[in-house]
């Protein structure tokens, strides 16, 4: 099967591409570095010729409201138009759990635009919304640290390993489109402070956790349960503690 992976050079994209190639599929790595530009459309018609599945893992270079909105709108319109002309049978998007609850955040409004464009295109689709990755924990701690203190909200948190996300995307891309949204999340739900506390304890990082009830993620105000699935979801297999143990040498040499 010929599959086009947009954003094939990113954390998830590299893994998805590798899994599909190893499974024997003809995978086109879609990125500007390979001559495929979803904003200008350059190289896209050629890449889509004979393609059955498109996996859209693209991301805006900036989370800023107008820039991210313009990116996802332009890319979504180009992909929908050219995929229809090419007869693509399945368009898969990676999105974010809580997108509907976070419409006061510009980046999530832009992701909703991306989702809605493919829903309205007539192309069979699957939207996978994932929670934050285990891999985001280091950025979370860095952004919310002040000297030796790390200020973390008690909001609900249910992170998932990037490996689990990639595996689910690769498998779902080969199945029939569901024409709906699937939530995926990690196997454990707790407060964000609980995850950060365990990370600091296991890695021995020299920081003091300072919990708060501000209901924030990074710089963004969110609902207390805005980062976790509200209903049914598919659970990842790799626990947070297992992920830390498997990556501790890289995380805290």
Automatic annotation (TrEMBL):
Database matches in Pfam families: NAD_binding_10 (PF13460)
Domain NAD(P)-binding: 7-173
Keywords associated with the record: Photosynthesis, Photosystem II
An annotated GO BP: photosynthesis
PANTHER family: PROTEIN HIGH CHLOROPHYLL FLUORESCENCE PHENOTYPE 244, CHLOROPLASTIC, PTHR47128
A single GO cellular-component term on record: photosystem II
Name of protein: NmrA family transcriptional regulator
Keyword Repeat: no
């Amino acid at each position: 099967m010929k599959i086009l992976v947009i954003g094939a050079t990113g954390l998830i994209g590299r893994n998805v591409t590798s899994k599909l190639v190893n499974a024997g599929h003809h995978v086109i790595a879609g990125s500007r570095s390979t001559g495929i530009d979803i904003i200008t459309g350059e190289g896209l018609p050629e890449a889509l010729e004979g393609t059955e599945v498109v996996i859209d893992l693209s991301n805006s270079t900036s989370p800023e409201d107008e820039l991210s909105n313009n990116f996802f709108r332009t890319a979504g319109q180009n992909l929908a138009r050219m995929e229809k002309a090419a007869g693509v049978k399945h368009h898969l998007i990676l999105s974010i759990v809580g997108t509907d609850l976070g419409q006061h955040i510009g980046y999530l409004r832009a992701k909703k635009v991306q989702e809605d464009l493919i829903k309205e295109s007539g192309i069979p689709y699957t939207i996978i919304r994932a929670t934050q990755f285990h891999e985001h924990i280091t950025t979370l701690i860095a952004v919310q640290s002040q000297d030796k203190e790390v200020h973390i909200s008690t909001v609900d948190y249910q992170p998932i390993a990037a490996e689990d996300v990639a595996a689910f995307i690769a498998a779902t891309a080969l199945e029939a489109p569901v024409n709906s949204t699937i939530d995926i999340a990690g196997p454990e739900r707790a407060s964000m402070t609980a995850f950060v506390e365990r990370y600091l304890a296991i890695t021995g990082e020299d920081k003091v956790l300072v919990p708060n009830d501000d209901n924030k993620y990074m710089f963004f105000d969110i609902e207390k349960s805005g980062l976790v699935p509200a209903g049914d979801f598919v659970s990842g297999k790799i626990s947070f503690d297992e992920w830390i143990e498997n990556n501790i040498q890289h995380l805290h040499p």
